[in-house]
Design a protein that fits this description.
Mean pLDDT: 91
Number of strands: 17
Distance between the termini: 27 Å
Strand content: 25-35%
Low-confidence stretches: none
Amino acid sequence: EIFMDGNPINRLAPEDRNIGMVFQSYALFPHMSVAENVAFPLTVRGVPKAKLGERVIKALAMVGLKGFEDRRPAQLSGGQQQRVAVARALVFEPKLVLMDEPLSALDKQLREQMQYEIKQLHHRLGVTVVYVTHDQGEALTMSDRVAVFNNGVIQQLDSPDRLYEHPANAFVASFIGENNKLHGEVVLHEREWCDVKLGNGSVVRAKSVAVGAVGSRTMLSLRPERVMINPPAGSCDVTTTARVKDVTYLGDHLRVRAMAYGDQAIVVKVPNASKESALGTDADIQIGWRAEDCHALDVLA
C-alpha cells in the first residue's frame, strides 16, 4: 500500500493523487507545443482556460524558458526538453514530485547545471521530491536524505554526509564514493573498537560499526582522502610501509595507488599542490590514518 500524508492513494486515479512525474526520456508530446505540453496536467484536471495561460507562463519562467511557448519539443535541446518536463510536473502545484533518472541522457556539464537548478527549485518551492538515480555523486549533491537500495531492500536511509562518513554496512560503504576495502578477521572486540587481522598477519585497529564476534570475517572501509602519505609522527593511529604502483593526475588532486599489507591495494587522494606530486612508481612510502576513520563492517550485510 502507498500512503501520502497518512492517506492511502492506491485506488485514486492518477490525476487525483497530486503527484508530478519527470520521466527519464522526458515523455513530451511531440505534436504539442511547449505551452500545450506544460498545460496538459491542468487540462486533465479541468482548470479553466482563463487561468491556464498565466500558470503555464509562470511555470516556464520558473525553469528559464519564457518565450519558448510556441516551439515544438524537436526544436529544443536535451536540456531545454528536460526543463519543459520539470515545468509540466510542477505547473499544477503537486504535493510530491517523482523524478526517474531525469538527467541521465544529458552530458556532464549540462547534467551538473540541471542538478543545481532542480535543487534551487526544490528549496524555493518547498515541494517534496523523490529522485531516483544510479549516480552516487548526484545523490550526494542533490539530496537532504538518501535511501540506498540493494535487491529492493533499503540498506541505509540517512543524510548524505552520514552515508559517506558512517556507512551502515559493507554494501553502502562500497556503493557510495571511492573506498579502500581491507578484508580480515576480528581478533579483539571492545565496545566501539576492534582489532582486525589481515591476510598477511598484520593487525589493524578500527571503529566497530557492524561486526560479529571474535573470529568473524569483516571488511575495513577507509576513504582515500583519509589516508596520509608520510604522516608526521603521532598524527596517525595506524601506519605501514607501502610501495607506489601508479600516480594519476586529476587536476585538483592526485590519485596514488600503493600496495601494502602484502597484496592489498590502497588508494590515497592528495592535493595537487602537495609534495607527493613528485612521487615515482615503486617508491617506498609510509601511509597512515586515524583508527576512527577506518570502519569495520559486516561483509554479509
